[in-house]
Specification:
Two copies of one chain form a homodimer.
Chain A: H1 15-26, E1 31-35, E2 38-41, E3 51-58, E4 75-81, H2 87-97, E5 103-108, H3 111-126, E6 131-136, H4 157-169, H5 174-185, E7 188-195, E8 198-199, E9 206-208, E10 214-217, E11 228-231, H6 235-250, E12 257-264, H7 270-286, E13 290-297, E14 306-314, H8 317-324
Parallel strand pairs in A: 3-4, 3-5, 5-6, 12-13
Antiparallel strand pairs in A: 1-2, 2-4, 7-10, 7-14, 8-9, 10-11, 12-14
Helix pairs in contact in A: 2-3, 4-5, 4-8, 6-7
């Protein structure tokens, strides 16, 4: 019997190439394909400024390539579904982006991405390409205070792309950008909650398969699990528990200016995301914090997974300035607070 | 036995109030609640310009209130989930928006919304409020050339909000805005395709309940059906069939400048939406058309329904100008082609 399709795709092998082709056709003024699976700005910025590059598997749209554009990423190097792009392709992208000002490579902490990045950077150094890496490791599901090697990179990378893109546009040096990035990553944290079944588009295998009415706080982006499964509670109870865990990790001082993003990962409705945001906001204000930057949006998805990621950061004024006051034309970045 | 929750909500009765509260907390620089279920701009525009107002039930987030902001809607009047807001609330909003330049009320063709709008406009006229209505009826599932009374308002309203908001900012008169709107609605068409089950957040009843592997082209926004059910085919075959039907309706002349939007309605991934866009774009270019405005985004959803709406319009140059070259800070409007 022929397999039943449940997604709008053509050949499973072609999903990454076809989605990227559709993407650059839809946003021709902002992005282009420089080579297979290498998304760049339509209008490259001047070479005296540091290039911001990232890498990661497809299947998380609009991330990561949705944030290529003026004022954000210069280049996104795309792997197949949930797979790292490999060192050779990343090296190819670093060659394209080569410049005296240097390249800052933002790497989400997933083993394949880290391995690709390390190998590509070795190749780049041998080829005389100036490149530095910064790791994002915002997931807190490994436990409060867990070492950063044990913490995965989740949706917290996206605001970092904005901060770095704006700072690079201002002419900040590679060393300065590394400092800005590390100050952000040290003060950002994300917690994911998953619900219901979702499937891999290429083999229809369950990425996660939670029974109705069960949720998992601390889920990863590819069904890694890592959290506890328990019966779904109310939006308010879920939000309060997640805020508490994130605050335990970040330990913001009273009066801190926070970023709060509720990132829908797929099937959970914007309606629900708004309701969750409402409670998280109120919890944080009750703790004496100011919400300086906020957003409710699908920025990094996990196929048709139900659930969301709560992304939080303690921001400095220059982070806030780069997030709020510098325009970007990346197709999925919505300006904040204009 | 207690009912199993499957959505992140609190009380089913409170979803609309709570989601709107979360929304205005997340976007405090752009939107505010003027009264219960009445969303307005944070910074009202000058009263010598026509106000653009719309109405509709909740449950379709980010529409409709996500498009309130500078350069788009002045006011969105919200009903409960999938329910019209009622004439009294709409009248209240018209009183708030009252001005000599007048109010243009954009009404999606759904019986409850139309009835609320007609009654509220009668009340407004008696109260000396200058208001005109424009109806959107982009759905083509009733058949090619069906009378507009039989055609529902789908996601095609969103670009119209942008066009009207930009034109009103320029100081166009109420009569001129009606003409601009009717020229758009006469030349726009949408087709929706649904797949899989989704549920109402208040009673957990199935809004649509399609078996795995079955799709329905011509589905409405609330499970009205109206299309034919058939086994899911490839993304390319689906896109080609929908493009053909939309072109039969619109009959664009060779060389026409088109708008093409793939609107995800909930659970269908951005990955799939990109793949569908790719084929639709190629089909239209092969027919001799130019894609002048394009987007892949969830602008109007149907809870966690899988599927999408293909929104198409034949645009005049002034429509293109209003869509592309005039900024808006509405929280869910992403600038096109900067």
């Amino acid at each position: 019997m022929e397999k039943i399709m449940t997604k709008f795709i053509n050949s499973p092998e072609a999903v990454t190439a076809e989605l990227l082709e559709g993407y650059v056709l839809a946003y021709p003024d902002q992005v282009a394909l420089a080579a297979e699976n290498i998304v760049v700005r339509k209008n490259p910025k001047s070479e005296d400024k540091v290039a911001i590059v990232t890498l990661g598997g497809s299947g998380h749209e609009p991330a990561l390539s949705g944030f290529v554009g003026d004022g954000m990423l210069d280049c996104s190097v795309v792997g197949d579904v949930f797979a790292a792009p490999g060192a050779q392709r990343l090296f190819q992208a670093l060659q394209l982006m080569k410049r005296e000002a240097g390249i800052l490579l933002v790497v989400l902490n997933h083993s394949g991405d880290v391995m690709s990045a390390n190998m590509a950077c070795q190749l780049a150094e041998r080829a005389g390409i100036k490149v530095r890496k910064v790791l994002t490791y915002d997931d807190v599901s490994a436990g409060i205070g867990a070492p950063k090697e044990d913490r995965r990179g989740l949706a917290g990378c996206v605001p970092l792309y904005k901060i770095l893109g704006a700072a690079a546009d201002e002419g900040r040096s590679l060393d300065e950008l590394v400092e800005i990035a590390e100050r952000y990553t040290a003060n950002s944290a994300t917690l994911a909650v998953a619900m219901r079944r979702c499937t891999h588009p290429q083999n229809d295998a369950a990425i996660t398969d939670l029974p109705d009415g069960i949720m998992e706080i601390g889920a990863g982006q590819h069904g890694e699990g890592g959290g506890g499964r328990k019966p779904l509670v109310s939006a308010d109870a879920t939000a309060a528990e997640m805020v508490d865990l994130l605050c335990q990790q970040l330990q913001p001082k009273a009066g801190s200016k926070l970023m709060l993003i509720i990132n829908g990962v797929g099937a959970t409705t914007h309606m629900e995301l708004n309701i969750v945001f409402r409670k998280a906001y109120k919890e944080l204000v009750a703790r004496g914090y100011e919400i300086a930057v906020s957003r409710i949006q699908e920025i990094l998805t996990v196929q048709e997974q139900a659930g969301f990621q709560m992304v939080m950061a303690v921001l400095d004024d220059d982070h806030i300035n780069y997030l709020k006051n510098k325009p970007s034309n990346a197709p999925y970045w919505v300006e904040i607070g204009r």
